[in-house]
Amino acid sequence: MTYVFDFADGGMHMKDLLGGKGANLAEMTRLGLPVPPGFTITTEACRAYLKLGELPEGLLREVGEHLLRVEQTMGRRLGDPADPLLLSVRSGGKFSMPGMMETILDVGLNDITVTGLAATSGDDRFAWDCYRRLISMYGATVEGVPRDLFERALAAHRRAAGVRTDPELDPAALRALVEEYKQIFQDHTGEPFPQDPATQLKGAILAVLRSWNTERARVYRRAEHIPDDLGTAVNIMAMVYGNRGPRSGTGVAFTRDPATGARGRYGDYLPNAQGEDVVSGSRDTLPLQELAHLDPPSFDQLTAAMRVLEQRYRDLCDIEFTIEEGRLWMLQTRVGKRTAAAAFTIAGQLVDEGVIDLDEALRRVDGAKLAQLMFPRFDLTGDPEPIVTGVAAAPGASCGRAVFDSRRATEASEPVILIRRETNPDDLPGMLAARGILTSRGGKTSHAAVVARGMGRTCVCGTAIEIDDERPQFRAVDVTVREGDLISIDGTTGKVYLGELPVRPSPVVQYFEGERDAGSGPLVAAVHRLVAHADAVRRLGVYANADTPEDAARARRFGAAGIGLCRTEHMFLGERRALVERLILAEGAQEVQEALVGDVRELHLVRADAERVLAGVPGIPRIPIGTMIEVPRAALTAGDIAGPAEFFSFGTNDLTQMAWGFSRDDVEGSIFPAYLRLGVIDASPFETIDRRGVGRLVSIAVKEGRQARPDLRIGVCGEHGGDPDSVRFFHEAGLDYVSCSPFRVPVARLEAGRAALPADT
């Protein structure tokens, strides 16, 4: 089996084998873009390693053969004391998992090669800066040395030198820092920092493969519904340097705004820095447009590459690049993560540009994104005064209690805003638990911003707030915010407010309510267009659960075709309740109550009663008589029940409770959070249909019910009818309709259309 591929031997359609990053590096190489030479260890190698507990036989030999080709291309050799080749080692699964797995840069530096790098570059400071980066990355990633030990040492040297940023440290300070880092490494591991470049490379490869199964990676995959058995590729390429002085730098670029979808060139640039400095958010970046003034030729070349990539991928592209002494290098590209608003807007734009058709546009959005767009926004009519303004990194309006620790965010019983200097992958559980994220550092391409956009969380970055090291609080100008204080963050404007702000309806809800027309802005226009196309292609009917005139009217405005569930018991609340209770408790034949159905004989009895009542009402039209399927036995005997039943309506809430054997009220606040955290379940079965269990009951009932009665009409009336993943299942299972709450009707319409599309080729 071949475990290693040169970049030149792959392509964008090989993501299963090469991972997203490797496939895209290969595609950029094929397109003739300036990619450093390198190769990819496949996901098959990762799966073999995870199964065996060791590197598969022959892998290191293949790595050596491909490394030799990189050395020949670069004219440098790994470990050469005079002119060393250095390597970067990066992860890259099939699906983008920003910041969740590992990266090690500058592999190949040691006490000897660092002097060779200094001599060939003519820059002592650059060489020692690279060496200290390698020791800290390798120590933390490969050997598990706590990152904050290195961070504290770096901060102490900045204070001693009287400087604010890392690039201001002189060569002597960096040499001293390297020695301190090596001592930290040895104190923690009991071994000196490895001087053999081959040992460093093997350790880095192992660390990346292991990172597939770190806790943060597993948590992210559960949140994004990414399978655990895919594995990660390992991408190894020649190092290029953005930290070689003022004519060098690194950045992240987007071919369209990932927050709004607006056309143009967006991103961040950081002079005299390596890529980790940008994505970590540890240093304040410049807007990408500043590169046009700092280095016009590189900016023009980058702009041309962005056009090529967007045309090739037919979508928003996210690009990482480095400029080394005026030479542009492309380090990565991928289809960029975006907000819900950007997803709809970009899909509409690409249809207008003739790049994709409406079917493809509908595939690129989903019901979960539409649901995000329907949440309210802050009402700023009172002109509230923000306490601080930062970078609008991920749109939305979120309010919660200030929390400064990821663990405490996961334990909070109230909505929280997670506040950090900058986030790192270890903060993921807290980011998932929080309503919004607020950081003092970083920009639109920082870890906090990228992850928040992907998860649909509100995020404001780069606020320059002063976070207290001693107590959980921050200061913004003349305001101090302590843990537990209520704050509101606006990810659309970047503004942060003290207290809880009032909210107003989203423009998308106003459109569905008829208060805005379809042409009121690009977002509403895109939503209108794609929901209308979904209506045109979907097979599933979409009804509403409504038992009041107000609910029924809203459901109709939101596009429901009718009422799928009307709970008559809701008519007898309030002042009528005493009358109903008296009737139920009355003695005699009237006290007999029939139970919703588990056996066909029950249905025969109930149907006979219903037919007698209907026969006694003159002039009434023929009314079909069917049954709810809420008991597992009813699903398993659906062939019998379909005889006297003209329709089935699955009550999936009760069916789920009975199939799992517990009460929803008992488990959702106690057992399920632990199950989700431990990976026992990927989602609550009350939110998304349990395909293997409850879903199988539904499929059996549909198949056997239709065998007995081909014209049997079948639907679902539980809230699963408005869940995007569940709607897709109900389409596949052959149901005729779904019914959900009025507010979720547009989501069900959109997802029913997506489910009906042919497979994307």
From TrEMBL:
InterPro entries: ATP_grasp_subdomain_1 (IPR013815), PEP-util_enz_mobile_dom (IPR008279), PEP_util_AS (IPR018274), PEP_util_C (IPR000121), Phosphohistidine_dom_sf (IPR036637), PPDK_AMP/ATP-bd (IPR002192), Pyruvate_phosphate_dikinase (IPR010121), Pyrv/PenolPyrv_kinase-like_dom (IPR015813)
Gene3D superfamilies: 1.20.80.30, ATP-grasp fold, A domain, ATP-grasp fold, B domain, Phosphoenolpyruvate-binding domains, Phosphohistidine domain, Pyruvate Phosphate Dikinase, domain 2
Residue ranges occupied by any Pyruvate phosphate dikinase AMP/ATP-binding domain in the UniProt entry: 16-56, 61-283
Pfam families according to UniProt: PEP-utilizers, PEP-utilizers_C, PPDK_N
Enzyme category, top tier: transferase
All copies of domain PEP-utilising enzyme mobile, residue ranges: 414-494
GO molecular function, one term: pyruvate, phosphate dikinase activity
Residues annotated as the enzyme's active site: 447, 717
Cofactor list: Mg(2+)
Domain PEP-utilising enzyme C-terminal: 527-582, 605-753
Family as reported in the entry's similarity comment: Belongs to the PEP-utilizing enzyme family.
Protein name per UniProt: Pyruvate, phosphate dikinase
